[in-house]
Protein 1
Amino acid sequence: MSSFVVLGAQWGDEGKGKITDYLAEKAHVVVRFQGGNNAGHTVEVEDKQYKLHLIPSGILYDNKVNIIGNGVVVDPEALLSEINYLEGLGVSITPEKLIISDRAHVIMPYHKVLDALKEKARGANSIGTTGKGIGPCYTDKFERCGIRICDLINKDVLKEKLQENLTLKNKYITKVYDGEALDFDTIYNQYVEYAEKVKPFVKDVSVILNEEIKEDNSILFEGAQGMLLDIDYGTYPFVTSSNTTAGGVSSGAGIGPNKVNEVIGITKAYTTRVGKGPFPTELEDETGEWIRTQGHEYGVTTGRARRCGWLDIVIVNTSVRVSGLTSLVITKIDTLAGLDKIKMCVGYEFEGKVIDYFPASLEDLAKCKPIYEEFEGWGEEIKNAKTFDELPENAKKYLNRIEELTGVEISIVSIGPKRSETIEVKRNK
Ligand code: GDP
Ligand code: IMO
Ligand code: MG
């Protein structure tokens, strides 16, 4: 049995979708365990591109089981529209292929309304959320008033819970935020319709996954977002509302932590961030703009331009430490082709000292100055490499330095968005 986790080692959009699809070939089950449709995971196979938000990136294979775990927050409207989108692209979605946890929490219309109203009220301090209702839905989960999938598919329970919630939410929306009240009947009727369509996919995910483990089947857990968007170890409050780190797997899927064998950190060869918050190696200059253009760095979920900067090893090492990464996958190394010089942040200067960790306090973080090492660039020939040895010498130096600084082996180097543009690093052991 081998279960492995794919996690973003930075601020999201590292290429988790691409790598999950690639590695899914070796797995029997692919599981999302946290986040929701704030995620935007791109998979490219031959000439087709697929943009996934809620459905695991193993869905393109006909013989894989894809699971949305209890730790995920599910917007049924978004889920059904993603099913339609995939079916339109020729991907079959059946209850054998897609399973949704009965314990997952449901994103309701008032969560989306509150996400927008709270952001507006934060003014200059807004987080820059995706506006998908993620934070307000997780708030209700922890407040213990949320509506779960098992409640959604029971009309009477849905009615009661919606009534209770909406009464309070409408007060909150109108009296605190000056927004417009939502109508019970409209939501109830809409969600009863969604429930009918969602019901065939609903099962107890923990029971299923533990059966798979007993049968020695391989499970791939697909993280969403990334290290520094983690609610505990990210750049709080500029984070998402779930545990994006390895700790989220066990609680978000209902398996023991000892059931995971490998933790793979997906790391972009540079750094990007969407939304607000600190970013020590950000390039607010021509180079940053150049990387954005070369890397098509625009959000899959919101279309926003991603902020770009140099690779920050302090961040990757936070992921190594917090998630116990056992290997790294470096993506988008091809995007940097054409730059004369490439920099890598290897530590921060903070109050006259060199530190190699990410401070909790944003005020301290603002005082941190990145310490860089500089590398010679490489050219477009990188796209022709089929093996690690065939990569340009300067790219190999860059990659070897990442291994040295993190103490973690690179298992895969990705040189393009397509499934085929993937190099497995073979080692003589
Ligand atoms: P995710 O959220 O981590 O799944 O990443 P996104 O899909 O949001 O963003 C990654 C983008 O980079 C997508 O457009 C991918 O198709 C693309 N991509 C992934 N790996 C590579 C790579 O190695 N090279 C290039 N050029 N593009 C890549
Ligand atoms: P994938 O899985 C990049 C960011 C938002 C915002 C913050 C909080 O594609 O890597 P939220 O809507 O979650 O409350 O927003 O988190 N964010 C992401 N950034 N990639 C993502 O997902 C993200 N999901 C959320 O931009 O800064
Ligand atoms: Mg993304």
Note: The first strand starts at residue 3 and ends at 8.
Protein 2
Amino acid sequence: MTDGVLRFGADYYPEHWPETRWTTDARLMREASFNVVRLAEFAWSKLEPREGEFDFSWLDRAIAVLHDQGIDVVLGTPTASPPMWVMKKHPDAYRVLEDGRRLTFGHRRHYCPNHEGFRESTRSIVAAMAEHYAANKAVIGWQTDNEFGDRCYCGSCGRAFARWLAKRHGSIDTLNERWGTVFWSQEYENWDDIQLPSRIARAPNPGLQLDYFRFSSDSYVDYQNIHIDILRRLCPDQWITHNLMGFKYDQIDYFDLAAPLDFVSWDNYPRLAWAMVPEVDVPAVALASDTMRGLKRKGFWVMEAQSGSGGWEDISVAPRPGEIRLWAWQAIAHGADGIIFFRWRTARVGAEQYWHGILDHHGEVGRRYEEVRRMGAELARVGGKILPTQPRAEVALMLSYDSRFAFQAQGNNPAFSYPGHLRDIYAAFHRLNVMVDVVSPEADLAGYRIVLAPALHVLPAATADRLRAYVEAGGVLLGTARTGVKGIHNEVVDAHLPGLLRDVFGVRVEEYDSPALGVATQLRAEGAGQNLTGDATANGWCDILAPEGATPLMVYEAQHYLGRAAVTEHRFGQGLALYAGTFGNAALHDHLASRLLDAAGLAEAMRPAPEGIELCWRQGDDGTRLLFVLNHGVEPRSVVLTEAFVSLIDGLPVRGETVVGAHDVLLLRTGGNLI
Ligand code: GAL
């Protein structure tokens, strides 16, 4: 990332294996064209066996063995698994679950990020590592901790929350006012009175709930800053990243967590989240990569790329032949500049005995190693041509963690999931092979032709103003049901919905209906929507819309709102704002996507491809365009290439009808100096 090399390697745990094996591992890694490994993110007990007694000798030797084979190192600060002596010293640093149960020893991520003593132990190990490795040329960068997350409900958090609230609200009267604690006689007298919300007794105050989720997110951001401050001071020549958990992780505002990092990395397990379903959710994986790229609007690494079956208790579906390489190329197509496989060799001991790596338990090379080796050879040849290019999108998808947190407390309808809804809207663009950036509600929208802002539930005035200005200046906007319902304190707005955006959408929600599970209401195209055919339905929500300048595109075909507007569009300033008063099915999302693309003058960007085929582009400043044709299907497919390309791997011309094998990839180049 930072040194002009596309990085390729694995997560390696030398401390789990006899030292006599290390040279064999390093040689096999070199033969697979590795240029980096990640080490040590769980090795606290081996690095500081007793308080203040550090032993870096084994890690020094492992790094030297790897470096001898030309392999650089990323070090993890090992705080995700504090050893026994740390926990004995701080027995109240164990994380507490929402129901009050305290974690015990024998797991990982068992610490509270707000515990002062634990923070002190963190400073000590991070500073000792940083001092020791600052000048080590093999160490190119750092990963903070490992997959930050999981809310804590302990006493330290309670005290830190009170301080956080005092800073945010200034006075207890203001807090009472903003949270509306008059409801159910919940007025507080002092900051110390405020207890952490628990949903065990159901329905905590919504203001309390949202602020606690924000606080909890800030706690990890703040805890990470302990690591970052030390590393920046002591290791100015090494970069810092963290391995995030993609789009699906929902307890930390990843825009905040990513802000102080040099770049984002993330852990990509396509056959884990959907472990027991036979098919990979390809758009969901693509969305995860696009989200990770969007956090800093720049390239990212995959710090853990799936290379075998996952498994703590059960063992998940094995990657099919070609998939390990396919997923890695997919990530690169979406902006990855580094691919690190999890893990080098499957552990014989510990909780992840069944979490399979590139090598199986026995350590001999096999099918998965050969696939990785093939990819390494390809990258060694073409990585330099890929790095100067980036994905570029004209469509932005707005991801609001405030809205996500608010929906976690109040789901609105059991059929609705905010992340699921974003995934479904994204998938309609993915089906058309249109690239999408994921952006925060604070993002500058000027460069985008289309902004998708589904279910923007908690809507700060500044975001509403930005969206209004965006449409006025010619932008095309999509909003969906439950937009603009809440202000920033999670209070419902004193206005007709969609609240602050009513003028932009030119529509008023006259009434709404939260349908019973499984009820889908047929939609009928109307007026300007006439060309929208198919079987679009309203699901999960039905806003009954009264247009105020907007034109109906679709109306309901049933219920007491038969014939009433469900989807509308509104010319506003130079732009156009579409509002869908429902979450809808895939047919509706397809209609919306093509209508939006048409309206934005991007019709030519729609490139539907045969089923299973994903098309992605990376572009360079010199006019080079790289096309990645990814076949996620189990059958070979043909695609028709209307431009002249050359194959990136062998430089041969490719044009017209071209076959892509099952789980295979075409890497093509056009433009620039080539054609
Ligand atoms: C990740 C984690 C790794 C390993 C892997 C497989 O979430 O960062 O340490 O646990 O999953 O479970």
Note: The chain is about 30% helix and 20% strand.
